[in-house]
Specification:
heterodimer, A: about 400 residues, alpha/beta, Rossmann fold, three-stranded antiparallel beta sheet, 12 helices, about 15% strand, B: about 300 residues, nine-stranded mixed beta sheet, 10 helices, nucleus (chain B), cytoplasm (chain B), tRNA binding (chain B), Elp5 (chain B), P-loop_NTPase (chain B)
C-alpha cells in the first residue's frame, strides 16, 4: 500500500518545478479590486462583504453581510434586542462613512439615529478583555484543580465567537454616539406618518400604500446618490445601508399581524421582491426587522424568510423571570440562525454550532456558543430537572469548592 | 407594581387593561380614573359601553368637574340627527379637536372605554396607526384603554398590546373577591418587568394588593427541600474528630505533588527534551487511522 503511494508522490514532486514555469495561473492584481472603506472580500466566495456591527454576529453568518443582500431579524417579543442589532448595523455604517437609509413607522428615524451606540475606536478595549480573561483563569485553575491538576494549563473552551482577522468595530451601548460623528454621514430617513397622511380609504392593490411609498423612496435615493452600478461613476463609490424597522407590523398598515387570512397577504412579499431587485443591482445592503411572533400565518413568515438572504431570529428571556431554565442564567436570550445565503456557490457557510446565545454585557452585545458547565454530581438523574439545574449552578463557580462544600461525609 | 403604575404614569404612557367575560376590568379602570382625578389631572373619556351616570358613579366628587365625558353610548353609529360622538369620529384630528375645548395645557389623560368597540368598527391596522398618532401628537400625557381580549382574534390583541407600555390583564382569582392582575411594563430604555398580583377594588375605588403571586414564592421554596443524611443512623463511626481531621489533612496522598513540583511538570524548562516534528511532503498522516504506516 505504502510503496506505490510513495512513488507517485515522488513523480509529482519531480514534475512540479517544470510545471511551475509555464503555468497559466496568475496572481490577481490588487489594483482591480474595488476598495470601499468598511468592506472586504469574503474568504469563502470572494463576495464583497460589510460588517453587521456585531463582530460575533459576522462570524456566525459567515464573515459578514454580502453587498446586495438582505438580512432578516425576527424580533424578540419586546423588540429590544432586535432594535439594538439594527442600531449596531447603522452605527457601523456611520463609523465606516457609508450612507444610511432608515425607515420606521413607529419611532421617528431621527430618534433611532440619536440612540446609536458610541464606537470604541482604539484597540485597547479588546486586549484588556483578553488580559482579564487570562488573569481570571489562572488563580481559579490553581485553586480548584486538586486531582486533575495536569489539565490546568489547557486552554478553556472558547465561548466567544470571533474571526481571526479584525473586521468591524466594537461599540459601547451605555453611551450614545457624538452628534458631530453623526453629522458626517449622509442619512436619508423615511417616517411613514410623515410620508402618508392617514386616511381610512385604501384602494385595493397588490402592495399597500406604505410599502409602495417606501420602495419608491429607496429607489429614488439609489438613483439620486448613484448607488446603482448602471450609471458611470466619476467619484469614489460608497455603500448604502438600509435599515427598515418593524416591517409588517400594524403601523405599516399591514394586517398580516392581525388576521390568519389577511386581505393583502402578498403585500409584504411583493415589497420584498422589489427591495431585493433594488439591492441586487446596487451597492447597498439591507437589514429588516419583522415582528414574527405577531404574524399569525406561518406560511407568510416562511415566504418572508425565503425572500431574505440571511435570516436570524432572536428569542429573549426578558420578562420571563423564573420561567426559563436556570441553565440559561448567564445569557439574555437565544439566537437562531434560520438561513444563510448560497451566494455564487452550491453550499453555504455552515456555522459549526447551532446552539448560540446572546448576552448584553455592561457595554457590548455578544453572541456566544451555548456552553454549559459539566454535570458531575452523584444525584443527577434525567427526570429530575431542577436538581440538575441546581447542581450546574453550584458547579459553575469552581469545581473543587463545591465538591468539598456540600458533602455529608468526610471521605 | 399595580399601585406604582396607578400613581406615577410618566408622559407618553399607554396603559391597556385587558379583561374577559370571566372578570370585568371596569372597576379597575374606574379606580385608575379616580387616582388620576386625585392627582388633579384632566380626563377625557370616550365612552361607548356605559352611560355617563354609570361611569361617574363612585368617582371622587371634588375632582369630578375635571372629567369630560364624550358620549358615544347613546348613539354610537350616528342614527339620530345630532350624535354626540360616533365610532367613526375616532380620528386623531377629531379627538384633538375635542380635547381642545378645554384648553388647559395641563396633563390630559385620555380614557377609551372600550377599545373593543372601536376595533369592531375599524380595521385593526388603522386603529393601531391612529393610537400611535395620538401618542405622538404630544397633547396627551397618557392613554388608558379597556380591551375585552376574548372578543378579538389573538393577533389583533397582540398587535394592539405591542404598542402599549403597560398591559394589565385581569383574570379571576381563587376567592370570590380577589382577582389576579398580570402586569407587564416596558420602559423606554427597553427594560421589561412582569408581575402577578392578587388585588381587590373596594367600594370607594381604592385598590388593595392582597398578596404577591404564589408563583415566585414557589420557585423560591423548591430548592430548599430536605435531603436525607445518609450518615444519620449508622452502627459504625463515619465522623471525624478534630484531632483525626488534622491528622488526615497532614497526610499527603500518593501522586499529589507540591505546588513547585506541579509547576515544574507543567512548564517547559529550557533544558528539557521536546519532540519537534515537522511533517514533510511524503508524510501521509491520516487522523482516522493511526496505524496507517503499519504494513499489515
Amino acid at each position: 500500500m505504502a510503496a506505490p503511494c510513495n512513488s507517485m508522490s515522488i513523480v509529482g514532486a519531480e514534475q512540479k518545478p517544470r510545471l511551475g514555469c509555464n503555468t497559466s495561473f496568475q496572481k490577481k492584481s490588487r489594483s482591480k479590486l474595488v476598495s470601499i472603506p468598511g468592506t472586504r472580500p469574503s474568504v469563502q466566495n470572494g463576495q464583497l462583504i460589510v460588517s453587521t456591527g456585531v463582530t460575533s454576529l459576522d462570524y456566525v453568518i459567515g464573515g459578514g453581510l454580502a453587498v446586495g443582500t438582505l438580512l432578516l431579524i425576527e424580533e424578540d417579543k419586546y423588540d429590544s434586542y432586535s432594535r439594538m442589532l439594527l442600531k449596531y448595523f447603522l452605527a457601523e455604517g456611520v463609523v465606516c462613512g457609508h450612507n444610511l437609509f432608515i425607515a420606521s413607522a413607529r419611532d421617528h428615524p431621527e430618534d433611532i439615529l440619536q440612540e446609536l451606540p458610541a464606537p470604541i475606536l482604539d484597540d485597547i478595549a479588546s486586549t484588556r478583555v483578553e488580559e482579564g480573561q487570562t488573569k481570571l483563569c489562572d488563580p481559579e485553575g490553581q485553586d480548584s484543580m486538586k486531582i486533575a491538576w495536569r489539565y490546568q494549563n489547557l486552554p478553556k473552551v472558547q465561548t466567544a465567537l470571533a474571526s481571526s482577522s479584525r473586521f468591524g468595530h466594537y461599540y459601547d451601548v451605555s453611551r450614545t454616539m457624538d452628534a458631530e460623528m453623526r453629522q458626517t454621514t449622509k442619512c436619508n430617513s423615511f417616517f411613514l406618518p410623515d410620508e402618508l397622511p392617514i386616511n381610512s380609504a385604501t384602494e385595493p392593490s397588490q402592495m399597500n400604500e406604505g410599502y409602495m411609498a417606501l420602495l419608491r423612496s429607496i429607489q429614488a435615493v439609489i438613483r439620486r446618490e448613484g448607488f446603482d452600478g448602471a450609471t458611470p461613476q466619476y467619484k469614489s463609490r460608497n455603500i448604502l445601508r438600509i435599515g427598515l424597522h418593524s416591517l409588517g407590523s400594524a403601523l405599516w398598515g399591514d394586517d398580516i399581524c392581525c388576521k390568519e387570512n389577511p386581505s393583502n397577504a402578498s403585500s409584504l412579499t411583493t415589497f420584498l421582491y422589489g427591495l431585493r431587485a433594488l439591492l441586487r443591482s446596487s451597492l447597498s445592503v439591507g437589514v429588516v426587522t419583522v415582528p414574527s411572533h405577531l404574524i399569525q400565518n406561518r406560511a407568510i413568515m416562511g415566504r418572508v424568510t425565503k425572500l431574505c438572504d440571511t435570516a436570524i431570529a432572536l428569542e429573549s428571556f426578558k420578562g420571563l423571570k423564573g420561567e426559563t431554565n436556570p441553565l440559561y442564567k448567564d445569557y439574555h436570550g437565544l439566537l437562531h440562525v434560520k438561513q444563510i445565503p448560497h451566494l455564487n456557490c452550491l453550499v453555504c457557510e455552515v456555522p459549526d454550532t447551532k446552539d448560540l446565545a446572546f448576552k448584553l454585557k455592561r457595554k457590548q452585545f455578544t453572541i456566544e456558543r451555548l456552553h454549559l458547565p459539566p454535570d458531575l454530581s452523584d444525584t443527577v438523574s434525567r427526570l429530575n430537572k431542577p436538581d440538575l439545574a441546581e447542581s450546574a449552578k453550584l458547579l459553575s463557580p469552581s469545581c473543587g469548592s463545591t465538591a468539598t462544600g456540600k458533602k455529608h461525609l468526610d471521605f | 407594581m399595580l399601585l406604582d403604575i396607578m400613581q406615577v404614569t410618566e408622559g407618553g404612557g399607554f396603559v391597556i387593561i385587558q379583561d374577559s367575560v370571566d372578570c370585568c376590568g371596569r372597576q379597575l379602570l374606574k379606580s385608575f380614573i379616580n387616582a388620576a382625578l386625585k392627582r388633579e389631572e384632566i380626563i377625557h373619556v370616550l365612552g361607548f359601553e356605559v352611560c355617563e351616570d354609570e361611569l361617574r358613579a363612585g368617582l371622587d366628587s371634588r375632582g369630578i368637574q375635571r372629567l369630560y365625558f364624550h358620549d358615544g353610548f347613546t348613539d354610537p353609529l350616528g342614527w339620530t340627527e345630532c350624535p354626540a360622538l360616533t365610532v367613526h369620529q375616532f380620528t386623531p384630528q377629531e379627538i384633538s379637536a375635542r380635547l381642545g375645548h378645554s384648553e388647559q395645557p395641563k396633563s390630559v389623560m385620555l380614557v377609551i372605554d372600550s377599545l373593543s368597540w372601536i376595533l369592531r368598527h375599524h380595521p385593526p391596522a388603522v386603529v393601531c396607526q391612529r393610537l400611535q398618532e395620538l401618542r405622538r401628537g404630544g397633547a396627551l400625557k397618557s392613554i388608558l384603554a379597556l380591551l375585552h381580549s376574548d372578543m378579538h382574534q389573538q393577533g389583533i390583541v397582540g398587535s394592539v398590546c405591542h404598542l402599549a407600555t403597560v398591559v394589565i390583564s385581569v383574570s379571576p382569582g381563587t376567592g370570590a373577591k380577589h382577582a389576579v392582575a398580570k402586569t407587564t411594563r416596558r420602559t423606554k430604555s427597553g427594560r421589561v418587568t412582569r408581575e402577578e398580583e392578587y388585588f381587590t377594588v373596594s367600594e370607594d375605588l381604592t385598590v388593595t394588593i392582597e398578596a404577591q403571586t404564589i408563583h415566585s414564592g414557589k420557585a423560591q421554596a423548591e430548592p430548599e427541600e430536605f435531603e436525607a443524611d445518609p450518615a444519620a443512623n449508622l452502627t459504625f463511626n463515619l465522623r471525624l474528630s478534630e484531632v483525626e481531621r488534622e491528622a488526615k489533612e497532614k497526610l499527603s496522598l500518593p501522586f499529589v505533588f507540591s505546588q513547585e513540583k506541579k509547576s515544574a511538570l507543567l512548564h517547559h524548562r529550557p533544558g528539557a527534551g521536546r519532540i519537534l516534528y515537522e511533517p514533510d511532503a511524503n508524510d501521509d498522516f491520516d487522523q482516522e487511522d493511526p496505524d496507517d504506516d503499519l504494513n499489515v
